[in-house]
Amino acid sequence: MPELWTPDKSIAQFIDHTLLKPGAVSADIAKLCQEAVQHQFYSVCVNGSWVSYCKEQLAGSNVAVSAVVGFPLGAMSTKIKAAEADAAVEDGAAEIDMVLPIGALLEGRYGVVAYDIGAVVRAVEGHAIVKVIMETGMLSDEQKSEACRVAEAAGAHYVKTSTGFGIGGATEADIKLMRASVTPGIGVKASGGIRDRDTAIIMLNAGANRLGTSAGIAIVTAAPASVFGQSGDNTGAGPAASTLY
Ligand SMILES: O=C[C@H](O)COP(=O)(O)O
Description:
Blueprint: E1 15-19, H1 26-39, E2 43-46, H2 51-57, E3 64-69, H3 78-91, E4 95-99, H4 102-106, H5 110-124, E5 129-133, H6 141-153, E6 158-160, H7 172-181, E7 187-191, H8 197-206, E8 210-213, H9 216-221
Parallel strand pairs: 1-2, 1-8, 2-3, 3-4, 4-5, 5-6, 6-7, 7-8
Helix pairs in contact: 3-5, 5-6, 6-7
Glyceraldehyde-3-phosphate binds near residues 20, 169 and 215.
Pathway: Carbohydrate degradation; 2-deoxy-D-ribose 1-phosphate degradation; D-glyceraldehyde 3-phosphate and acetaldehyde from 2-deoxy-alpha-D-ribose 1-phosphate: step 2/2
GO molecular function, one term: deoxyribose-phosphate aldolase activity
Subcellular location: Cytoplasm
């Protein structure tokens, strides 16, 4: 069962330190890795082309590499997503963050969604875990719950809220809904717009086992916040960093 955060634990160990901007250059990725080692983040989360470079940068550390797949639209063919995941694992990724086919989900074509997720799970089985991004800002509560159930049945290890490039981001209500929609063996990752320590703690208290954020340094270097260990007024993450669609 994925670990749950409690106030005696470091928040850093629950963070995927994320840099997914298309304009990232080697120096940015190297800095991401250095920061991840320095602050002991759980992983760095990058686009597939950076996985082997991150593995080099992180050699000798215990920081994992997460690679996004079908990112950020989720609209690529299943075959390509599976091949992309396979390539990322070959380059050293231990975790795959895939975007499910959002259009198929919106239409209720759950068999298509299940097939897409299952193909990625099978492509990396035994070598990497799979987190399924559903882009919660585009979905009704019923669609979010259904996406969680389909992802779990298809073999996913985590359900994840948002890409950070779409509509909206992680909210406390969505994390609670997603936690209630999967069994305790499945992780919930909050991502998109988590910019500060208060929001990070709200997500963890709501049941998130992992946070995906490009603001990891601000979160772990902030002074302990007023909502430490409890839920506060801030019920949702801010707007995503950039919106592509
Ligand atoms: O998967 C993680 C997200 O892309 C991070 O989004 P963010 O840049 O809004 O923190």
